[in-house]
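Pilot study result, target chain (114 residues):
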Amino acid sequence: ILSGEHEYAQIEATAKAEAELKSRPQGDPAAAGGTLAGFNDEPIRSRLVGSVSGWEPGTEFKLENGQTWKVLKGNMKLRKPMQAPEIIVVPGLMGRWFLQVHEDYPKARVYLIN
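Predicted structure:
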């Protein structure tokens, strides 16, 4: 019975989260460079404005598509700065997003601030 109660609680929590997502306003897709971060499962591809030599929590990445992403978790110091690299922001579980500067480097957990 205990496992049944636990399973029921998980189902109830999932239903509540889905209902909350559906009740959120959809906003203007153009405001986020044509995509709604958090409302689809597609990676966002753009290019960084300027250069990057590393990141840590609080670092902001301004992209050519008009979006600005801020690092929540993750640290990286590059051997040499990269000038205007292509950026991919990849969706994760539970609405999390991860910014990838290069496929061989660790991703930074980020959130959209504009």
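One observation from the pilot: Residues 24-35 have pLDDT under 50 and may be disordered. A full batch analysis is planned for the follow-on phase.
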